[in-house]
């Protein structure tokens, strides 16, 4: 039993001896006394940085610039850009369709804006204001209209002229 007590005292002594090392970190300063010391250390660090800059002019300090990519559209931009508004769908009429059965992508349609009396010759894929020509059929033209980020389809049919008009 004395061997066991001796072993316990040996471990306790080793633990106390390990805690008495003077080369470790200093104890923290008491509260309230650290503010002037911290300000003095910051001032010394700033002076040391200035001295290093003067000694080695090859070092250039550059300020970091951050650019954040927005998640949505710019709220200050108009939803309708003035150049893209005309022609309006309500003002368009299909006057002629040249439909190629063998090669439908080679088909051509002629549309007329009735308000300004302007003619548009279009093919599949052409853009007309906010509209895109999606398909040209024998008797109709299918348009895809993009408004406020939403696409919708609309079909303009060829109107035949009636007798006496």
How do the strands and helices of this protein lay out in sequence?
Layout: H1 2-19, H2 34-55, E1 92-98, E2 108-113, E3 118-122, E4 127-128, E5 131-136, E6 140-147, E7 150-157
Antiparallel strand pairs: 1-2, 2-3, 4-5, 5-6, 6-7
How is this structure best described in words?
A 4-stranded antiparallel β-sheet has the order 4-5-6-7, with no helix packed on it. It is 24% helix and 25% strand. The protein starts with a helix and ends in an 8-residue tail after the last strand. It has a domain of 73 residues: SH3 type barrels. It has 2 helices and 7 strands. With 165 residues, it is α+β, with helices and mostly antiparallel strands. A hairpin with a 2-residue loop joins strand 4 and strand 5.
Structure described in brief:
By secondary structure, this protein is α+β, with helices and mostly antiparallel strands. It has helices at 2-19, 34-55, and strands at residues 92-98, 108-113, 118-122, 127-128, 131-136, 140-147, 150-157.
Q: Return the string of H and E elements.
A: HHEEEEEEE
Structural class: alpha+beta
Average per-residue pLDDT, rounded, comes to 77
Largest sheet: 4 strands, antiparallel
| Percentage beta strand | 25-35%
CATH topology of one domain: SH3 type barrels
CATH arch. level architecture of one domain: Roll
From the N-terminal CA to the C-terminal CA, the straight-line distance is 127 Å
Radius of gyration over C-alpha positions, nearest whole angstrom:
41 Å
Into which percent range does the helicity of residues fall? 10-25%
Q: Tell me, what's the shape?
A: elongated
Number of helices: 2
What are the segments in which pLDDT stays under 50 over at least 5 consecutive residues? none
Q: Biggest sheet: strands side by side, in what order?
A: 4-5-6-7
Number of strands: 7
CATH class of one domain: Mainly Beta
